[in-house]
Design goal:
With about 230 residues, this protein is an alpha/beta fold. The chain is built from 10 helices and 9 strands. It binds 2'-O-acetyl adenosine-5-diphosphoribose. 2'-O-acetyl adenosine-5-diphosphoribose binds next to α1.
């Protein structure tokens, strides 16, 4: 059975109504990355950062998985390969669609993290900057999001999967942010067939064996159906 590693980004959730980052009217056109997505920004103005992620949590809770999330969950249950989804997204649409072998490499909106002791707990709908850790009681709650300058989660597990990958797909990601943008090169080195599935070619599009362009709700179910037919 082939090892299938799938990297997803904001584009897979766009048709569920969640804003992407780098569209002309996207989140990074509305907010300064340095202010809301760095440890320094959080230290300067925790309320601004917590409120930014409170708004993201609210939008994610109001959204439903789309046909692309559902197709990836279907791929996992049909047992045509060992499927690992690595998402940069902090929404929970993959797990709500039914994916179980899933890594949130940039964290998740659904947990809070204690900056003092590392404890994690379910995030309330509205976090507040002075929230106390339920374990060590430090007033050090932060969103469980990997910010710029921080190490993404579970990199050992991801690189191990990439080194054994037979098929690598990147879906709905612009190729701006490393290490994720480097996964295609890693998978290619391991001999994987690589495919980019995106609305437009990403910054690393030339590194893929194949590029499929179009909205994820069409292109992802098509790709999954072809893999399932191939068996
Ligand atoms: P971007 O906003 O950079 O890119 C989204 C990609 O999805 C673009 O290439 C779009 O063309 C594509 N896209 C948009 N709508 C689509 C659709 N309906 N179907 C298919 N593709 C579509 O988002 P990411 O690449 O995910 O990190 O961004 C990576 C990281 O940068 C994020 O995880 C976040 C951000 O800063 C942190 O906050 C740490």
């Amino acid at each position: 059975m082939p090892n299938i590693v799938i990297l997803t980004g904001a584009g897979i959730s766009a048709e569920s109504g969640i804003e992407t980052f780098r569209a002309d009217t996207g989140l990074w056109a509305q907010h300064d990355v340095e202010d809301v997505a760095t440890p320094e920004g959080f230290a300067r103005d925790p309320a601004l950062v917590v409120n930014f992620y409170n708004a993201r949590r609210k939008a994610a809770a109001a959204a439903a998985p789309n046909a692309a999330h559902e197709a990836l969950a279907r791929l996992e249950t049909h047992n045509v390969g060992d499927v690992l989804v690595v998402t940069q997204n902090v929404d929970a649409l993959h797990e709500r669609a039914g994916s179980t072998n899933l890594i949130h490499m940039h964290g998740t909106l659904d947990t809070a993290l204690c900056a003092a002791c590392g404890h994690r707990w379910p995030a309330p709908a509205e976090m507040a900057p002075a929230d106390r850790c339920p374990d060590c009681a430090a007033p050090a709650a932060r969103p469980d999001i990997v910010w710029f300058g921080e190490m993404p989660y579970q990199m050992d597990r991801i690189f191990d999967a990439l080194s054994r990958a037979d098929i690598f797909a990147a879906i709905g990601t612009s190729g701006n942010v490393y290490p994720a943008a480097g996964f295609v090169a890693e998978a290619a080195r391991a001999g994987a067939q690589t495919v980019e599935i995106n609305l437009e070619r990403s910054l690393v599009g030339s590194q893929f064996d194949e590029v499929r362009l179009g909205p994820a709700t069409r292109t992802v179910p098509e790709w999954v159906d072809q893999l399932l037919e191939r068996g």
